[in-house]
Amino acid sequence: MSLLSIQDLSLSIHGQSILDCVSMDIGPGEICGVIGESGSGKSLTALSVMQLLPEGATCSGSIALSDIEILQADEQTLCNIRGRAVGMVFQEPMTALNPVQTIGQQVAETIRIHQRVSRSDAMVQAAKTLRKCELPQERFPLSRYPHELSGGQRQRVVIAMAIALQPKLLIADEPTTALDVTTQAEILRLLQRLVAEDGMGLMLITHDLAVVTDIADHIIIMNNGKVVERGQAKALYSNMNHPYTKSLFKASTHQPERLGQVEDTVLLSVQNVVRDYPMARKSLIKKPAPFRALNDVSFNIYKGECLGLVGESGCGKSTLTRAIMGLDDIQGGVISLNGKDVFADETAREKMQVVFQDPYGSFNPRHKVGRLVSEPFFRLGRSATNDEIVESLVSVGLEAEDRNKYIHEFSGGQRQRIAIARALIIKPELIILDEAVSALDVSIRAQILDLLAKLSTERGLTYLFITHDLTVVKAISDRVLVMRDGRIIEHGDTKTVFHSPHHDYTKKLIASAPQIQPVEGINI
Amino acid sequence: MMSETRSSRTALKSRNLFIGVALTSIFALAALLSLIWTPYDVTQLDISSKLKSPSWEHLFGTDHFGRDTFSMVMVGAQTSISVAFIAVGIGMGLGVPLGLSAAAYRGGLLDEFIMRGNDLIFAFPSLLIAIMITAVFGPSAVNAIIAIGIFNIPVFARLSRGAALPLWTRDFILSARVAGKGSARISVEHILPNITNLLVVQGTIQFSLGILAEAGLSYVGLGVQPPIPSWGRMLAESQTLISIAPHLALFPGFAILLTVLGLNLAGDGLRDLLDPRIRRTRR
To answer: CA-CA distances (angstroms) from residue A21 to A6, A232, A276, B84?
Structure first.
């Protein structure tokens, strides 16, 4: 007897069809991985189970939770189901918690909504639930506020809120996407343990195939609102039928071809760089000790090379980008490009450009694309000619006509192409890619990586590839630096670092990164 | 169905804009027309036909001096609108650059200086300052404009600083800095276009508040001086006669109400029109 049984669920919003005959079954104690790229309808499937659909949505088909038919249930029944029978974990732990309430209050609140218990009893239960989620009260008292916790700890609080009433079904919508790899591994282990202990069913929604390979019992792959492939996790990997599944697998392990020649000349040299941030003053007399975001960082990038810089959030990756671009002053050390100090000689900065992570935040929504991509020309003291704009757009696979459009008319992948066009337009030698592919779907990511590889072959570009994603680094970079707490703790050839890491942290990082297991006889 | 709701919603929006612009332009035209022509001379007293109810001869009736209320509302539009317009202009013209520079040097001394200066102005009730200004320089339309204008400065400064601050952390600002652009240029090229929608909406709100403030100041006798008519003073003068001649209060009252309504509707519609993201869905 399955716990959740969805039969032929179709969903349309304002007449536009979003889901088309989706069916799935989740039994108690089972983990069902729902995989799809953005816009595939995976989140809306989960929201239909909760009936938390956007305005104008109409469902048909059947969603049965135990014995209750959700699509026919009235609002009162649904309110009882939400939170009590079905718990939900969202992607972004930063926004899923109320910043002005303590974690104890927030967990207790979910309990008090559904059960007539006193405030203190609810707090006791909350403490118990938090302990279950590996937040023992000795170290994380109930009186903590969300901002006092790290991202992974916050996600544990969110999970505690979801499982506080021991729901039969837990829906986790991209629960680890916003987290670092090591934290991601911990959260996945926690979810797996909770499912095993309580016999919950878990619907694990993700865009990342690798996340679910290890823990899911069966997998459903969605594309354009349809289930294109389903099956037992292990069986599915060795026997994929649908072309979309195959392309998804191919994209996740995509290895772009680079033919660039690495020369012996040093292009960018970073020597003993130190960057301190002033901290808030705590006492009147004592000067606060500064926070050292970059501690004695040194490395070289050679012409034509692609150097990967790996580290988790807070390790100083972005600070390093800003220092190299000359945006923030440094407190010690020298950064030079082609032998010119980037702080002393501003012309050095003409030869480098940067591509940022967020394809939505890195453009001014009020300007047209033509004006956006020509912005770097400001440094050269002239405006871009029409030909230059067209050339840069065409070189990233866009059309000349696109220069007259606004940025919101483009998808995430296209925007990242525009960001690359903006970086290319003044023909730099070095491009810093700061998490440039992290926000993209796997298939789009593969395309962008191909584009980058092609551009580096054609134009002899040098990349500094900053990312938290090991698979990307492995795919594209020649050498790797591993950064932690403002220091570079390991560097070497990509192959060497991945096969025989020296530092413990590197070993842990590589071990935590979810990987798609190569299965014998796999036929992609 | 999707396109249907969306188009009906945009139609509603553009209808608002249409009504707003129509109402505003009626009063603006009346104000312009009054410069060259009014049915009667507003300084012409005619005691024999005082306190007449609305008729074909006097559309809005006459006041206790026998002046034509319709002509007075027309000339009043001229004073009210110009006072409010210039006052908002002063507020925006000084407040927005101040707010933008405070945001550009956020956390610095300049920021502190500008914002504490704002607090200082905010600390006084506007009417009090207006009374002070008129006590020193004497009551006149110009002094009313200055008094209302000064009070618009901190409103716009705070608004633009607050709206600019989150923008400064965005990546597109970072890439502008990578291109070598300085704070002033970034403020004008990138920050300002992104806060115009807020400024337009606040501008229309302040405009209507300006009309009300002028009416208030004139009501207590500190604004526009007789014999120049203003909606506020017309209201003030009609107060004692409200039971005999209610039309004297009704017409200037409605004029204020409709102008303010029109401006707010127009501001709402204008905000959507200025946003390329919404503008596209409109098509």
So the answer is: 9, 20, 56, 60
